[in-house]
TrEMBL record:
<dbReference type="GO" id="GO:1901530">
    <property type="term" value="P:response to hypochlorite"/>
</dbReference>
<dbReference type="InterPro" id="IPR007339">
    <property type="entry name" value="RclC-like"/>
</dbReference>
<dbReference type="InterPro" id="IPR016865">
    <property type="entry name" value="RclC"/>
</dbReference>
<dbReference type="GO" id="GO:0005886">
    <property type="term" value="C:plasma membrane"/>
</dbReference>
<dbReference type="Pfam" id="PF04224">
    <property type="entry name" value="DUF417"/>
</dbReference>
<protein>
    <recommendedName>
        <fullName>DUF417 family protein</fullName>
    </recommendedName>
</protein>
Amino acid sequence: MRSVGRQAGSLSSAGFTILRSALVANLMWIGALKFKRYEVENIEPLVTSSPLLSPLRRRLGPENLARLIGVTELTIGSLVAAKPLAPRASAAGSFAAVGMFLSTLSFLLTTPGARQEGEGVFSPSLVGQFLVKDSVLLGAALVTAADALMAGQDR
């Protein structure tokens, strides 16, 4: 039985490491893309229909809003990655990611075309399918927050 427990512990540890690394990679990569013209255009329908972001878009313009989002994602990704050196900062980054993913999931409700027309509320379009993946990233952010909080408590 101890062997199974050790294996489960090793799997759990590997899972946390992979989950954190994948979350950081997603945040950093997608954040860096916000400085490209095509990504500014890609997020336009999402931010213009969002009650949270449309006022910022009107004030900053599409390019500056995309850059702000990119810098935010890069910052959050860096904080999440900081767990070995600064677990509390990493927990803060993970909680910021939770807020960010809750915001992006709200686009499912506010973005025209996020649902497949005539197919019911539970039939996401291609845009909706793109957004649904943020539910997995939301779970990853919660798990990495808990992991970082536990590591911070050990110090």
